[in-house]
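How it folds
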Amino acid sequence: MIHESAYVEDNVKIGKGTNIWHFVHVRKNAEIGKNCNIGKGVYIDTKVKIGNNCKIQNFSTLYHGLTVEDDVFIGPHVCFTNDLLPRSNIWNSDKIVKTVVKIGASIGANSTIICGITIGENSMIGAGSVVTKDVPKNALVFGNPAKLRGFVCTCGNQISKKAVEKKYVLCVCPKCKKEYKIDSQIYREVKI
């Protein structure tokens, strides 16, 4: 479904079952997978790639250079940048810096994602965060700048330390009881 107020340019690929709502603008050569929900006022720039089963909330901006994998949640008003040294009078495609959001990641409302980073699989970014560096797999980050505050399960709950080994910390989800091995070096970076 594409709402009549949405503007979808030429050569856009849209997967089956995807809904594009009011006042969305999808630029040429963008790709949107199956069963996605693109909320009101979202801007999807040229050549942006969005996987399957993604939910992109109202007024988010996704700029050229961005790849979003499957099952990603992007909250309202999230902004992805694509130029580390922006100037209004100097622009060419060589300035675009790529950003990747891995499968299952969730990004909270009003977050800003600085280009050139990878947001790890099943990670969670708290609302209002400014993300300036890579986010590890299953990491919970928030703040300005966003800092590693813990780790989350694929079900979304924060996981807790169960045992410490030499190379990893064994963590468990209190809700679904799934266990995770977190690299001990990464675990030491947690800032509460």
Notes: The two ends are 43 Å apart (CA to CA).
